[in-house]
Design goal:
The protein is of the alpha+beta class and 455 residues long. It has 2 domains: 114 residues, Uridine Diphospho-n-acetylenolpyruvylglucosamine Reductase, domain 3 (2-Layer Sandwich); 229 residues, Alpha-Beta Plaits (2-Layer Sandwich), CATH 3.30.70. The protein is built from 14 helices and 21 strands. An 8-stranded antiparallel β-sheet has the order 16-12-14-13-19-20-18-21. The radius of gyration is 21 Å and the shape is globular. It starts with a strand and ends in a 9-residue tail after the last helix. Bound molecules: flavin-adenine dinucleotide. The site of flavin-adenine dinucleotide has 32 residues, from strand 3, helix 3 and strand 10.
Length: 455
Amino acid sequence: MHTPSRQTLEGWGRYPRVDSDVLRAESRRDLVSAVTSNGEHPVLARGLGRAYGDAALLDGGLTLLMERLDRILDFDPETGWLKCESGFSLDDLVRIFLPRGWFPPVVPGTRFVTVGGALASDVHGKNHHISGSWASHVRNVELLKSTGEIVFCDAERNPDLFWATAGGQGLTGIILSMEVRLQRVESGAISMETTRFRDLEEFLDVSAAHVDWPYSVSWIDGLARGKSLGRGSFMAGRHAPAGSKGKAGLLSKLPRALVSGRFLESNLLLNGLSARMFNAVYYRKQFSKRSRSTVSVYPFFFPLDAVDRWNRMYGKRGFFQYQFVVPPDPQHLALKQLLTAISESGTLPFLGVIKEFGTESHPGLSFPRPGVTVALDFANTGQNTLELFTRLDDMVADAGGRVYLSKDARLGVDAFRRMYPEWEEWKRVRDEADPLNMFQSELGRRLGLVGEMPA
Ligand SMILES: Cc1cc2nc3c(=O)[nH]c(=O)nc-3n(C[C@H](O)[C@H](O)[C@H](O)COP(=O)(O)OP(=O)(O)OC[C@H]3O[C@@H](n4cnc5c(N)ncnc54)[C@H](O)[C@@H]3O)c2cc1C
């Protein structure tokens, strides 16, 4: 086993940054030995570091990089059940399985995540209204506990621990492997329909009209106010039938990043003028009122992956993504209040997306709940950004909604407890699984999810 090296780590939003001992695990033996011989030092598993805030950060402890534990352990071509190690990435999964006619059951907006990270965040995708989130498609998890014991969690064995681990942000133990069910697809193409909407009401009408499409998401102009509040562009998609638009090419061709954000590292996205220009141009030019097309899965599911390390474009201070969900409400009062507060604040968002979640939700700290979710990117311009978020937190909690922990770096304990009333039950299961409080993270400490390790 290699010795750990001291490194500065950050999340995708580049805020905050911490120093940690970092070990790239090569085998499960490395993991067991790191956990059992680590004495009083806390430990955290880290996938590809795509959580925006501090979920994958541990100040002063031992961070275990999981990406080398990426073996496929079993695959049943009759049913689509895949057993793999937790460091297996969705990038590799799509690259290996799409040419064979299989696709992940759920994908987030980037393919550079591990399956372990996907379960620890219980990620959702454009098909939440039909397929739910990642954990809905997992039947079995192998978990390494702080005692060094390896346990199986599924519907029969340790079901509470299974649901505490799904969305549990790495705080119940180290996910070693899982069985996840892939879906069959006939091609690597997506038939897509785009519809522009003028306001929030029109968004909900268009969304209702496309409810039987397996995938949907919308870009929203977070700066629009008054009569245009909530305007944007709705994208619906479904896997195209065999033979669509050069099946072979689309199935196997992997796009390279077109440009690297590293070279654009500047404060390009920091000022309000560029935010206004971006949103206005996007609304007018990007989409005609209604259009149909067939595209590869890559631009449809992972448009931002075309710019390698695009997070650098926000400069060294980084950025935040504020993602919330509020319950269904025929009058959309909370949604209107939130969007108005954002567009009228001096703190302007760049990219925004809006989507209606389906009815499925999971216990514990899993984020998706029935209702409408909105995610907006804000440059970190200091105190005013944080103050805006605190005001939004109150509105979200008052409405019975919640913010997404995998995107968060600053939520306070009180607001968190209002948003996640199941936190106590989740913590009971976690504390039982990890009585030593070995698994810690900055997010876990900030939100009071973990206690101190015994001295
Ligand atoms: C551009 C972009 C788009 C995104 N779009 C979406 C989206 O549409 N929907 C969505 O739900 N999320 C989305 N995300 C968030 C992302 O999917 C999640 O944060 C995911 O968890 C990242 O996976 P990762 O492998 O990078 O994990 P990391 O970021 O490294 O870690 C995330 C959490 O998982 C834990 N973890 C990782 N591996 C293990 C393991 N083996 N055992 C135990 N715990 C582990 C970590 O401790 C940490 O708490 C997006 C992120 C980006 C950057």
